[in-house]
């Protein structure tokens, strides 16, 4: 099947994010850093992203630990960052992604990157964390995804809610995994 030089391929772009939903804020960070360190969430992230190509913004990239067995593509407007595979233009990184027929891509943040790619993803995983102890209930965030998360939950035209399950529920926190699938679409790449 070919359409004016375009050939349908199986291209998978997914998104993963963990949000603090204790106060219904969908907070993801402050000063470019996560506000929590939860081993179960980190293990889930590792399993989901292993052997995939990760797309990340500069601030998030600078705060990442070493991630083995994952390729990292950085989108930034900071010309001093020339590390890994760096892109300064959204169109250039999207062209690279859509012409790659072998890799699965995962959007891992930050907020601007999620917003830039929300219309390109096929699948999303949102881990909602609810903290139970008082010292964690009032985390302050300068970055939240409440608008984006609500768009995913309530926009029937783009996202289909797939499933929700509890990853862990203990005396400190509860993590619920929300999976979303984008309504069926065919993506084309240039041959």
Present the secondary structure layout.
Elements: E1 6-8, E2 13-20, E3 27-29, H1 39-49, E4 53-57, H2 58-62, E5 71-75, E6 85-87, H3 90-98, E7 105-109, H4 111-117, E8 123-131, H5 134-137, E9 143-144, H6 146-154, E10 159-169, E11 173-182, E12 188-190
Parallel strand pairs: 2-7, 2-8, 4-5, 4-7, 5-6
Antiparallel strand pairs: 1-12, 3-9, 8-11, 10-11
Strand portion, in percent? Answer: 35-45%
The percent of residues in helical segments reads: 10-25%
* Distance, first to last CA: 12 Å
How many distinct helices?
Answer: 6
Gyration radius, to the nearest Å? 17 Å
Helix-strand pattern, N to C? Answer: EEEHEHEEHEHEHEHEEE
User: What is the average per-residue confidence, as pLDDT, rounded to a whole number?
Assistant: 80
What coarse outline follows from CA principal-axis ratios? globular
Q: How many beta-strand elements?
A: 12
Q: Largest sheet, order of strands side by side?
A: 6-5-4-7-2-8-11-10
Q: What profile does the largest beta sheet have?
A: 8 strands, mixed
Identify low-pLDDT runs.
Answer: 1-9, 185-191
Structural class: alpha/beta
Q: Can you describe what's shown?
A:
The protein has 6 helices and 12 strands. It has helices at 39-49, 58-62, 90-98, 111-117, 134-137, 146-154, and strands at residues 6-8, 13-20, 27-29, 53-57, 71-75, 85-87, 105-109, 123-131, 143-144, 159-169, 173-182, 188-190. The strands form 3 sheets. It has an 8-stranded mixed sheet with strand order 6-5-4-7-2-8-11-10, sandwiched between helices. The model is unreliable at 1-9 and 185-191 (pLDDT under 50).
